[in-house]
Amino acid sequence: MTAPEIRRRLKQLANPEKAKVLRGFFKTGPGQYGEGDVFLGITVPQLRGLSKECGSASLTDSVALLKSSVHEERLLALFLLVAAYQRGNEATKKEIYRIYLRHVRYINNWDLVDLSAPNIVGAYLADRSRGPLYRFARSRDLWKKRIAILATFAFIKQNDGADTLKIAKSLLADDHDLIHKAVGWMLPELGKRDLAAEEKFLKQHYHRMPRTMLRYAIERFPEEKRKKYLNGAI
């Protein structure tokens, strides 16, 4: 399928009522983080199914979709790039990683980041320098910072949590709820594999952690332990 053919297929799946709900859910109003984003009203399962239908789309067509103003086109493009990355050789993986970084301004909502960053950025950097993630973590851009912490999910799955903890520490003072949630999500994922490392980090930093971040980080703890953290009694 070419990009124009894929766009026609997406329009066939459009649901105006669902689009209205999604515009609210992804905060597209004036001054909100998703301001101006355009939705067709297509669900993630539908997009995953369509990505299999058009799995032979070229990287050029995937990039054309990624540069769209339509949210579902960008998400579908990322599904296509992830699939191409996973089946590609080393040269293809490198190309897709570079495509991702060159077009990062289009990866501009939390679902776009979460469903792609670990599988492309994290996967590519798993056996390479993680320097790009630290540069992203220092950025003023919300989505680059979220990419930085979410990409480390790939390392966590390989029982390597060092960069997760370093980047989490660097983001403790961030003022955005979506960063609080992202860090708070990665810490218990690390804890599934290395609870001692998560608890050591929490004991050192929980007094400084934004409340949302802390709540996410301790959500799998027994109730009594959660209360102690929330009451500052650890």
Protein model, in words:
The structure is a single chain. The chain is mainly α and 234 residues long. 66% of the residues lie in helices and 0% in strands. It has 16 helices and no strands. Helix 3 (44-53) crosses helix 5, helix 5 (71-87) runs antiparallel to helix 6 (90-102) and helix 10 packs parallel to helix 13. The model has no long low-confidence stretch (mean pLDDT 97).
Quick description:
This protein is mostly helical.
What's the topology here?
Blueprint: H1 3-13, H2 16-25, H3 44-53, H4 59-66, H5 71-87, H6 90-102, H7 110-114, H8 118-125, H9 131-137, H10 142-151, H11 153-156, H12 162-170, H13 177-193, H14 195-205, H15 211-217, H16 223-230
Helix pairs in contact: 3-5, 4-5, 5-6, 9-10, 10-13, 13-14, 13-15
Summarize this structure as a short list of keywords or feature phrases.
mainly alpha, globular
What is the terminal-to-terminal distance?
Answer: 57 Å
Low-confidence stretches: none
Q: The biggest beta sheet, please? A: none
- Give the SSE order as H and E letters: HHHHHHHHHHHHHHHH
C-alpha-based Rg, rounded? 19 Å
The secondary-structure class comes to: mainly alpha
Q: Tell me the strand percentage band.
A: under 5%
User: How many DSSP-defined strands?
Assistant: 0
Oligomer: single chain
| Count of helix runs | 16
